[in-house]
Design a protein that fits this description.
The protein is of the alpha/beta class. The chain is built from 14 helices and 13 strands. Helix 1 crosses helix 3.
């Protein structure tokens, strides 16, 4: 049997260029920084996890630079000498030394799962309980560009058969202008596709109650996180007022958050992200709380590269409650391929790869080319 004891922990920051600029309510990016965390066991098995945030520390307070410091200085010394199958013990040890920093911990936790599954010769989804599905639908995220640009991009995706669901970013403009832009898009596309919006927590309660009904009237069929994450009471009031679902993202990071959202009926859909919640197991716990309450889950994204994306895919495919599709489009937004065999996007969905661990292999040449010096 392989020796599962961790011998080495290595990190690298990659800067991967995007096919086009991607904008959020507060920031934008032309390249996505990715932290790779690689664990090697004494038996010679490696596991890799990914630390990545959407556009920098504005979302959750972490960046690839902070994650690298946390992993190298505080978490790696805890990992060396422990077994990759001691995931609960490692998580407790990490929490004893480092509070919060869930993105950094997620990178480590996914690497543990990858290494353990590879040592057993099984896919990661086996460690999560087995398959509920083998693929998930993928929504394509559109930025804050003009209505004409957004409509053209969406039409191209529809005609290619890659996507039939689209999410528009909002919150970067005056509400009246922002709503007019989205209404124009929705009126052109709503008959052919699902149109959703994400405010990235930029509006207050009054602004939301004034303008969001107009989006519903225009054909928008879901609103994601219109108000700041801490304002769960506002979110509940908005959810009660709107005839379309409200999805929680910034308000949902931990199982405790999930329980509070359920009790307050603050969201009709939960956005799951292994990154923001500290890894696969905590995210699965959130999904189980949602399932008990009859709340469907959606596979959200932090614009992960292929490692983070496929980790989230394993979770989504092993979790029955992920019935509201996904946004696992991150690798499609990246200009360069990082894997020896790309992930398979077809028929509007991302399909689970076969093989042990995460089921993918990084291309060493591509990793070297984009590694930050």
């Amino acid at each position: 049997m392989n020796d599962l004891t961790i011998e080495h922990v290595r990190t690298a920051i990659l800067d991967v260029p995007l096919i086009r600029p991607h904008r959020f309510a507060r920031t934008g990016m032309e390249a996505q920084p990715i932290l790779l965390v690689t664990l090697t066991t004494r038996g010679g098995v490696t596991g890799t996890g990914e630390g990545v945030v959407p556009g920098g520390p504005w979302w959750g307070g972490e960046s690839v630079e902070t994650m690298q410091v946390i992993v190298e200085r505080y978490l790696a010394p805890l990992l060396v000498g422990r077994r990759v199958d001691d995931i609960a013990g490692v998580q407790q040890a990490m929490d004893d030394v480092v509070a919060n920093n869930l993105y950094a911990k997620a990178a480590v936790e996914v690497a543990l799962h990858d290494a353990w599954a590879r040592s057993l010769g099984v896919p990661v989804h086996t460690l999560l309980g087995g398959l509920a599905r083998t693929s998930v639908p993928v929504t394509w995220a559109l930025g804050t560009e003009s209505a004409a640009e957004v409509i053209d991009e969406a039409r191209d995706k529809l005609e290619s058969g890659l996507h039939s669901s689209f999410k528009l970013k909002m919150g970067a403009q005056d509400p009246a202008d922002d709503v007019a832009r989205v209404v124009e898009v929705a009126e052109k596309l709503a008959c052919d596709a699902s149109i959703r919006v994400d405010l990235n927590a930029r509006w207050d309660l009054v602004t939301s109650l004034r303008w969001l009904p107009r989006l519903a009237e225009a054909g928008v069929d879901l609103v994601e996180q219109p108000v700041p994450g801490a304002e769960v009471e506002w979110l509940a009031e908005i959810n009660a007022a709107l005839p379309i679902p409200v999805m929680a993202d910034e308000s949902l990071r931990t199982p405790s958050d999930a329980l509070r959202l359920v009790r307050m009926r603050a969201a009709d859909v939960f956005s799951l992200k292994t990154t923001k919640s500290g890894g696969l197991r905590a995210t699965r716990a959130i999904a189980e709380i949602a399932a008990a309450a009859g709340v469907p889950c959606h596979g959200g994204t932090s614009i992960e590269g292929p490692i983070g994306t496929v980790a989230s895919l394993h979770l989504a495919c092993a979790t029955p409650g992920v019935t509201f599709g996904s946004e696992l489009f991150g690798p499609l937004l990246m200009r360069e391929e990082l894997l020896t065999e790309p992930l398979r996007y077809a028929d509007g969905a991302l399909h689970l790869p076969e093989g042990p661990g995460l089921g993918v292999e990084l291309d060493p040449a591509a990793v070297a080319r984009f590694t930050r010096r």
